[in-house]
Amino acid sequence: MTTRDDFDSVLGSWLEAEATADGAATLLERTLAVTAQRRPRPAWIAHADGARRARLLPIDDRGRSRLAYAMLLAAAIVALLVGAVFFAGQRPPRLSQPLACAGVDTALCGHTAGRWTSQTFTPGLMLTWPNDAWYTRDLPDRLELKTMPMTSAVIVHLDPLPAGPGPEQERAGDVASLIRWLRTAPGAVIEMVGERTTPTGLRVTTWDIRAIDPRAPVALFAPRENPAAPAIVEANHYAQRLHLVDLGGGHVLSILVVAYDSDHETVRRTDTKFDPILDSIRPPASFSP
Amino acid sequence: MPRELVVRAREGDHDAFSELASASIERLLRLSRLIVRDDDRAQDAVQDALVTAWLNIRGLRDPDRFDAWLHRLVVRSCYRAAGHERRRRVVEVALLPIDHAAVPDTQASVAIRDQLDRGFARLPVHLRAVLVVHHYLSLRDQEAAEMLDIPLGTMKSRLSRATAAMRAALEAEERAATAPQESMA
């Protein structure tokens, strides 16, 4: 068996014998002919080039291989993500499926998450439920949305009119005239919360409303079909928030978020939950005459 | 290596650089041949390293480190040359010269040289480089690691693997040599 010292000695001697320098003179001549024709680079370029070479040509080629594999893997992951996004964009939207309904005549029905279209209130009006927590009552004159614990509701009407007497031009029912009416409605306190445009391109103005005297309700909006009928939106003892959504073509959605416990925090919480649904509203392609 | 020559070369004095190259080239060529195991590519690696050294000599901050820097450039060029060798997918086995002055020319030593040569040629380039800087340049571990641009622990583990591979090559030869005698006894 070869001892360690023997082995080192044998290997050292062998390397010494193998290490020949034949042709060094010719190589030197050839190399100096190349260098004589070139000038050293400025120091800052030499530093930068040294760093670049160290990056591009790491002396440890296994490190270089690892880097190459890592870059390849990263490129593959990016390609997969791009593909996934592309195919997700191609996929048809998920449709909401009906869940159990409660009640008989005015059934409150649940839905799975997904896109949903009104059949009765405004046929073709489209919403998207972010989850299965919402229940709807799809009625001819209104759409009601509720979520647990049902101390609040979201009530949607189409094309309301200002309630009560007023100049004829104020009864046009467009968003501007409704806002003018709200600002001058006697007995009600109206505070603007904000204005924005939904991702679907609809302009929304939002208001907090309450009655100056909670015991004296103030009618704000009346149904277009019968302006003399009871108000569909009134300032009263409930805590309420109103969204006016301009659907275009002279059509307006009145969306009232109402807290039956009269707590403004309930309104705010419900409105926050409702926010993605509001963002998803798409008007029908055409309104029924 | 005279510091003054390095300083002059750094200022663009080509004569000074020629002297430095002349003093180093045989050593560099031996180093390159051992690592690359191919004459032409070894010469190319040295030339590439010297041209790079000349072009970037103003980036050398410490003139006293010229030798180490030059060795490093050569080792890097050798790795590159070995990379080209791999990409060409050509296996070249160097033929042993018939007479070799440094090793007694007995049948046994020729067999050992042959075995070492084959064992060494089978090693990947990064293990060959470790053996060369350790056994031929006789660098200390830390210096060897710096020249190879790898952590000290990596250098030690590579040296251990390379040494084990070479010992295995030699011991295989010893077993082959003793086996017939044992069977005859």
Structure description:
The complex is a heterodimer of chains A (289) and B (185). With 289 residues, chain A is α+β, with helices and mostly antiparallel strands. Chain A has helices spanning 4-18, 24-36, 43-56, 61-90, 175-184, 264-280; strands spanning 98-102, 108-111, 114-117, 126-129, 134-138, 143-147, 152-158, 161-162, 188-197, 203-211, 218-222, 233-235, 239-248, 251-259. Chain A contains six helices and 14 strands. Chain A has a nine-stranded antiparallel sheet with strand order 1-2-5-6-7-14-13-10-9. Chain A is elongated and about 115 Å long. Chain B is mainly alpha-helical and 185 residues long. Helix content of chain B is 76%, strand content 0%. Chain B is built from eight helices and no strands. The chains are: A alpha+beta (289), B mainly alpha (185). At the A-B interface, helix 1, helix 2 and helix 3 of A face helix 2, helix 3, helix 4, helix 5 and helix 6 of B.
Describe the structure in brief.
The complex is a heterodimer of chains A (289) and B (185). Chain A has 289 residues and is α+β, with helices and mostly antiparallel strands.
Helix content of chain A: 25-40%
Strand content of chain A: 25-35%
> How would you describe the oligomerization state of the chains in this entry?
heterodimer
Order of helices and strands of chain B: HHHHHHHH
Q: Quote the average pLDDT of chain B.
A: 81
Share of helical residues of chain B:
over 70%
Task: Tell me the structural class of chain B.
Answer: mainly alpha
Look at the helices and sheets of chain A and give the structural class.
Answer: alpha+beta
Task: Please report the distance between the alpha carbons of the first and last residues of chain B.
Answer: 58 Å
Main sheet properties of chain B? none
- The number of distinct helices of chain A, counting runs of at least 4 residues, comes to 6
- Biggest beta sheet summary of chain A: 9 strands, antiparallel
What are the segments of chain B in which pLDDT stays under 50 over at least 5 consecutive residues?
89-104
* Head-to-tail CA distance between termini of chain A: 104 Å
* Net shape of chain B: elongated
